[in-house]
Amino acid sequence: MRDEVVSVEASGETVGEAKWAALRELERLLPSLDRSAVEFVVVSEGERGLLGVGHTPAKVVASAPAPDSHETSHSDAAESARAFVERVAAAIGASVSTAVVESDDGITVTCSGRDLGLVIGKHGQTIDAIQYLANALARAEGSETAVTVDAAGYRARRAGTLAAIARRAAQRAAATGLRVELEPMTAVERKIVHEELKDDPDVDTVSDGAEPNRYVVVIPRRPLD
Question: Could you say which of 60, 77, 132, 169 would form a disulfide bridge with 18 (CB–CB 3.0 to 4.6 Å)?
Answer without folding.
Answer: 60
